[in-house]
Structure formats: C-alpha cells, structure tokens
Amino acid sequence: MATKNLKDMRRPDLIIPYQEPAPKGDSAEFGSTLSSTLPMAAVFMRNRYVGWAAVIFSVQSWLGESEDSKKSSSTPGYFTVGMSLMSLAVTYLPLFLPPTPGQQRASATDAPAPVPA
Q: Among residues 42, 35, 37, which one has the least CA distance to residue 81?
C-alpha cells in the first residue's frame, strides 16, 4: 500500500487544542417564557393537555431556578406554578359546574340566531 510510505505532513506547532464554548443562558429564559405563556394558552383554548403541560413546565422552571435567575426575573417561580394550577382548574371547571342547558352558546364568528316571527 502506498499510504505506509507517505510522511505525515501536519505540523505539530500549528495544532490548536479544542476549547468548549461558554454555555448560553437563553435556555432558561425560553423555559421561563414557556411556563408563563402556557397557562394563558390553556385558559384561552380550554385544552386540558395544554394545562397539564403548563403545570409540568412551570414546576420544572421553578425547581430549576438559580440565584441569578431569581434576582433577574420579574415574577417568582411559585407564581407561575400557581397560575398553571389555576389554568388547569379553569379547564376542568365545566366538569364541576356544567353550563345551564337552556342557554345557547354563540361564538363571535357565527351568524346571529334568527329572530322568531
């Protein structure tokens, strides 16, 4: 084989050792934003799965807070946990307080009901 006769052409004085880049702090901010936004989405969409995801993300964000993030954040971690639990309660509210059966629910995009003659 011809590769055994070739000499290594790399110069050892030009070798630069690998240095790991500094970690970015954006992941904590993204988790905090997600834990604050998901409870509102659960309330607006009345989706129970989004409510449960809000609880999980907010508890994870609360338990993963560092001292620096506690000082820089505007809302404490337990507040986001409380908001997510409240959004979960709102999504399950129709099970415990069902709407009245005679009341017709209308949305903003539907045409108005016809007026009886």
A: 35
Query: DSSP letter string over 28-80?
Result: HHHHHHHHHHHHHHHHHHT-HHHHHHHHHHHHHHHHT--HHHHHH-SS-HHHH
The pTM (predicted TM-score) of the whole model is: 0.62
Q: Which residues contact 59 (CB under 8 A, 6 or more apart)?
A: 81, 84
Most confident of the ranges 11-25, 53-67, 103-117: 53-67
SS3 82: helix
State how far the alpha carbon of 4 is from the alpha carbons of 1, 9, 10, 11, in Å.
6, 13, 16, 19
Question: How many alpha carbons fall within 13 Å on the CB side of residue 111?
Answer: 3
DSSP assignment of 17-40: ---PPPPPSHHHHHHHHHHHHHHH
Closest CA to 40 of 25, 27, 28, 57: 57
